[in-house]
Amino acid sequence: MDEIAVGRLTDIADGDYRVFALDKIEVGIFRTGTKVLAYENVCPHAGGPVCQGKIFNQVEEIITPDKKSAGLRFGKQRHIVCPWHGYEYDLATGCHPGDPSVRLTPVKVTVRDGQIYVSLPE
């Protein structure tokens, strides 16, 4: 695998992301604290630029003991929503919340000495 330096960790604010065109693929790099995640910028649903979508906390419905809706709230899981058709994925796992078999393609990413490196598949 080829390892490519894409920038410094401090170049991406906590909770933000950047998309990089590397060789034959685009890669979205996401920062949450000191943790960095990376996915191919291709939505499994229809090939949209998923890594360029909005990031938000998962919306959860509050259900009372008698099975009635008491409204909505934001949960702790961060999701990314593909801008083409609204498919969403758990940012931490890359999985669609309704069907974990539908998932983003992860890309190996590491941080060394404050520098972010992406390992491209062969």
Write up what this structure looks like.
- This protein has one domain: Rieske [2Fe-2S] iron-sulphur domain (Rieske Iron-sulfur Protein, 3-layer Sandwich), CATH 2.102.10.10.
- It contains no helices and nine strands.
- The protein has strands spanning about 1-10, 15-20, 25-30, 35-40, 55-65, 70-80, 90, 110, 115-120.
- The strands form three sheets. Strands 1-9-8 form a three-stranded antiparallel beta sheet, with no helix packed on it. Strands 2-3-4 form a three-stranded antiparallel beta sheet, with no helix packed on it.
- Strand 3 (about 25-30) and strand 4 form a beta hairpin.
- The termini are close together.
- The mean pLDDT is about 90.
From the structure above, extract its key features:
122 residues, Rieske Iron-sulfur Protein, three-stranded antiparallel sheet, 0% helix
The number of helical segments is: 0
Shape: elongated
The biggest beta sheet reads: 3 strands, antiparallel
Identify the CATH homologous superfamily. Answer: Rieske [2Fe-2S] iron-sulphur domain
Give the DSSP E fraction (strand runs of 2 or more residues): over 45%
What helical percentage do the residues reach? under 10%
Which regions have little confidence, pLDDT < 50, spanning 5+ residues?
Answer: none
CATH class: Mainly Beta
Q: What is the count of β-strands?
A: 9
CATH fold description: Rieske Iron-sulfur Protein
Order of helices and strands: EEEEEEEEE
Question: What is the correct CATH architecture?
Answer: 3-layer Sandwich
For the record, the count of structural domains works out to 1
Q: Overall pLDDT, averaged? A: 92
Q: Over all CA atoms, what is the radius of gyration?
A: 16 Å
The main sheet orders its strands as: 1-9-8
Going by helix content, strand content and strand pairing, the class is mainly beta
Ends: how far apart? Answer: 6 Å
